[in-house]
Design a protein that fits this description.
Largest sheet of chain A: 2 strands, antiparallel
Largest sheet of chain B: 4 strands, antiparallel
Number of helices of chain A: 4
Shape of chain B: globular
Strand order of the largest sheet of chain B: 2-1-8-7
Strand content of chain A: 5-15%
Strand order of the largest sheet of chain A: 2-3
Oligomer: heterodimer
Radius of gyration of chain A: 55 Å
Helix content of chain B: 25-40%
Number of strands of chain A: 3
Radius of gyration of chain B: 21 Å
Number of helices of chain B: 4
Chain lengths: ~170, ~180
């Protein structure tokens, strides 16, 4: 069962017909005033349809224009970025970069190798921390330490005054 | 910037550094040597070839005969060993490894008597020579050298050559030769 408002809206839209139309119009207290109101509503509807329709079209155009602009801008940015990347690592720059890195490597290598000055006691030489000869058997024995001056870097523990032994002791 | 080639290069360098550090096994060779002057000197033992001229200059002998030797691969740096001849023996007791080499306690025995006791820090690049007692017309010398583990070398030779590793070793040798 339709309410009065539903029937009224349907009547304004011209959607009532037949017995339903006759029944509704007969239920109206002032048909002429209702007819005038219906015409006004139809005019208003036509006006709104015209205005809103034009505005909607305008919005669509604006939106698509904005969209096209944004797509164009992003495409341009992307292509610009790609061009920037491809041009930065040029062959001459790569050569310079490699040469600089090699030079730094050599400089640091030499600096590290020269940390041990000649004459300074190097950690690469053998060190004698303590040495002792049996004093009972060799009361006059002495011990001295030195390093060979040549490239072999031989460390020598030199003993003097040890008791001499017969040649038999040279046996294997 | 493409990072992948850089990462690959760094990984390869690190891997090769690992390979080179794995080469770090060392052995200590210790020898009992009788140095004498003879009319026709015998060839010097191969372990002493590198120091032949140094030994001749230092001690003034023309022949160096090996009467006892031992080569010990140091894995923990806490090993001990004995190099002995008929009458002499050299007991070496390692007390650990440090940046420059191995801490060693050395005892030279004549039969059961201790002739000499020494605490030394044996460097990988500096051999130790100890002048012992006069023996007949010659001189007893004790020689200690740190060298690359022979077994490591043999194992490495038996493996097929890896071109990257071989290239890396060649590069290292070249840089070592160029830099003072």
């Amino acid at each position: 069962m339709k309410t009065f408002e539903e029937k009224w809206t349907a009547w304004l839209d011209g959607e009532l017909s037949g017995s339903e139309l006759i029944e509704f119009e007969s239920s109206l207290p002032d048909l002429a005033a209702a007819e005038a109101e219906k015409r006004d509503a139809q005019k208003l509807g036509a006006f709104l349809k015209k205005e809103l329709g034009a505005q909607t079209l305008s919005n669509e155009e604006f939106f698509s224009h904005q969209l096209r602009e944004r797509i164009a801008r992003e495409t341009e940015d992307r292509s610009r970025g790609r061009e920037g990347r491809s041009t930065w690592w040029t062959v001459p720059r790569l050569v310079w970069f490699g040469a600089t890195a090699l030079a730094l490597f050599v400089i640091f290598g030499i600096a590290l190798l020269r940390e041990h000055q000649p004459g300074e006691r190097s950690e690469y030489l053998t060190q004698i921390l303590h040495s002792q000869v049996d004093p009972a058997a060799n009361p006059n024995a002495t011990v001295s330490i030195f390093e060979s001056k040549n490239e072999n870097k031989v460390t020598v523990l030199w003993t003097e005054g040890l008791q001499s032994l017969p040649a038999d002791y040279a046996a294997k | 910037m493409e990072l992948r080639p850089l990462l690959i290069a760094v990984s390869v360098i690190l891997a090769m550094s690992g390979v080179s550090s794995a080469d770090a096994a060392h052995a200590v060779w210790s020898g009992l040597v009788i140095a004498e002057n003879v009319p026709q000197p015998a060839a010097i033992p191969p372990e002493l070839t590198k120091f032949e001229q140094t030994l001749k200059d230092l001690f003034g002998y023309n022949q160096f005969e090996l009467i006892g030797q031992s080569s010990k691969t140091l894995r923990t740096g806490e090993e001990d060993w004995l190099a002995s001849s008929k009458y002499f023996s050299l007991h070496v007791d390692a007390h650990g490894e440090n940046d420059s080499g191995y801490a060693l306690n050395l005892k030279l025995y004549k039969e059961k008597d201790i002739l000499l006791e020494t605490e030394a820090n044996l460097s990988r690049s500096s051999p130790l020579v100890i002048k012992g007692p006069q023996v007949g017309s010659g001189q007893l010398l004790l020689v200690l050298v740190v060298k690359d583990d022979q077994q490591t070398h043999q194992h490495r030779r038996a493996e097929p050559t890896n071109p990257i590793t071989a290239g890396w070793h060649r590069l290292r040798r070249a840089i070592h030769n160029i830099l003072p």
